[in-house]
Amino acid sequence: MRKNRVVFVRTKFIEAIQNYQRVEQEYRDKSKQRVERQVRIVKPDATPEEVRAAVEGGGQQIFAQALTSSSRYGESRVAFREVQERQTEIKKMEGTLAELAQLFTDMAILVEQQEDPINKVQDDAKEVEENTGQGYV
Prior knowledge:
The chain is mainly α. Helix content is 92%, strand content 0%.
């Protein structure tokens, strides 16, 4: 019975980690799509390499050029700020997610390490119960 609970908890834990990773990937994909749209707004003739560079965090040059040469100065400036803020948020989120993943790993290790001591305590309790029962006889 005890092993069934441990297996159940371990399975739920793994499902939670997988769900978390799926949601994280979806957020990253949406963020990348947003940056791509913003780059296309600021510089409609951007090459695929320029778009990729902006998505990976190196797009400041594209926005800076658009700020100086575009008649859409306000739009370019707003898009540039949004990209910078989004990039900062993504980096914070990645750091937090890495910490969370480490916590999940640590917790899994602790649960596994505690399995034997808990089983020992459970066995000792059964033995005490049996010995107590024999003492009444």
